[in-house]
Structure formats: structure tokens, C-alpha cells
Amino acid sequence: MAVGIFDSGLGGLTVLNAAQKHLPDVDFLYYADSAHAPYGVRDAEDIYQLTRKAVNELWSRGCALVILACNTASAAALRRMQEEGVPEGKRVLGVFVPLIEALTERQWGDNSPPREVAVKHVALFATPATVSSRAFQRELAFRAIGVDVEAQACGGVVDAIEDGDMILAEALVRSHVDALKRKMPEPQAAILGCTHYPLMAESFQKALGDDVQVFSQGDLVAASLGDYLQRHPGMMGTGEGGFLTTGKPDVVSDRATQFLRRQIRFQAA
Fold first, then answer.
1. 100-154: per-residue pLDDT in tens?
2. CA-CA 20 to 30 A from 103: which of 60, 161, 251, 253?
3. What is the CA 114 to chain-centroid distance, rounded?
4. 77 Cβ partners below 8 Å, 6+ apart?
């Protein structure tokens, strides 16, 4: 039995790692569309088509539930996929909602009207496609009012991480934080709206300052997933766990092993 986790590349490994620690008895089938990464610079239709193809592949391999660990895919494709309908007994979920629930201090499934929350000034760091979609702001508006969100498109960060160039990634993080602070000098909280960015969490925190609360997704999504599976045990699926990529398996495996600091072996999708 396996739950599917999809990402355009390796960023979703931060979600997978947290999910494996939180749910040690659950198998996961991870799918990295490395041949087409990064998604953050693609248009919405392209992102949708690539995401749908990957999710269909995970469903076909026995995953009843697929988590879009890619924020760009969640922003550009999730709602459309859900509106067009999914096969009976299948589900696809995104990673925005657990993050917003934590930011707004709501319990899972709290569908009460939006209300004022303590945090008023929020910095959102995300890919260009996620920023342009305004999906985060839309989901936040369902739960909170009076929150000012300043979004910063972080071009180049995902590419640098995927290439293993962490020095460049750190320099880009500092540059993007500086650009954000010119628009919002004193954010109270910062959202790392891409699953690659937790790999640079210390760099974001250092550039923002210790007084800014930084939210990233791994543990939040893992806890939410655990709650979901407890209430829907039938969504555990029938497939086997493992790692799939549309890229070159040896190259992707080496980079994944560096990221997680444990042996990861991808197979061709």
C-alpha cells in the first residue's frame, strides 16, 4: 500500500522525509518530473497537463491518494483537476491548506467564516508561477481577514537547488529577501511557498531576522496527512512504495541522496 507524492523535482523530498518520520508504517511512491523541472517558470496550461499526466501515472500504480508536494502544481492545477473530476476512489490534495491553517491557527477542517488573526503582515516566497496564480491569497481569504500578503517571486532558487549549487541558492535567497523587504520592511511571518525552500530555511531565517516566524511545509503537511489517513484508511492504496523520475535516474538519485543524506535510488518512470 502506498500514498503518492508528486513534485516537479526534488523539493517534495522535504515533504516525503517529514511524512516518513511522522507515518513510519505508510509506504510512499515519490514521482519527480525532473525532465520538465522547474515548473515555476511554465505557464498554467503546461503545468496542468504535466501534473495531470504524473498524477494519472501514480493512480495507475495503485496510489489512491496523491499529494501534490509541488506548490506550483497545487496553485496551477489542483483546483482544475478537482473540478473536472477524479476517478472513483481516488483523491488528489495540495500542500497550501495545512500551511494556511497553521498561519491562521485553525484546526483541520474548521470551515467557520474568515476572521481576524494575530499575524497581519505576511511575506510569501514562491516560484513565479505560484505568485502569479494568487492561489495562496485566495485560500487565505477563505480563513482570515485583514492580512496583508506581499509576494516575492524567487526566480533561480529552484534551479540552483536542483543543480546542487547551494552557494548560488543562498545568494539568491538573500537577494529575494532584500527585494521583499523593500516592499514590506517589517513582515511578521514568512511563508516558504515552495517545497524546495525548506532546504534553504536557515538562509531565509538569517536574512529575515530572528523576529520573523518562518513557516515551511514538511511537518505541517505530514501531520495533516496523518489526520486524513486516520479518518480515511481506505486511501492507503494498493501500490508499492519507491522513487520514480522522468529524468536520468542516476543523476536524480545522486542529488536526492545529497539532499536527504541517506541513500535514495530512483527508477525511470
1. 888 888 876 677 899 999 999 999 999 999 999 999 999 899 999 999 999 999 9
2. 161
3. 24
4. 44, 47, 48, 51, 52, 68
- The one-letter amino acid code at 215 reads F
Is residue 64 within 8 Å of residue 89, measured between CB atoms? Answer: yes
The H or E element spanning position 203 is helix 201-208
Of residues 19, 161, 173, 194, which has the active-site annotation? 194
Among residues 29, 47, 63, 70, which one is catalytic?
70
pLDDT digits (tens, 9 = 90+) for 188-203: 999 999 999 998 999 9
State whether the Cα torsion 164-170-175-181 is positive or negative.
Answer: positive
Average pLDDT, the chain: 93
Outline where DSSP puts E strands in the chain.
2-7, 27-32, 65-68, 91-93, 115-116, 121-126, 144-145, 148-153, 189-192, 213-215, 242-245, 267-268
User: Would residue 70 show up in a list of annotated catalytic residues for this protein?
Assistant: yes
pLDDT of residue 108: 62
Please, what are the domains in the chain? 2-94+218-268 (3.40.50.1860), 97-215 (3.40.50.1860)
Give catalytic status of residue 194 as yes or no: yes
Alpha-carbon gap, residue 53 to 125, rounded angstroms: 27
Q: Mean of the pLDDT values across residues 3-11?
A: 95
Looking at residue 97, its pLDDT comes to: 85
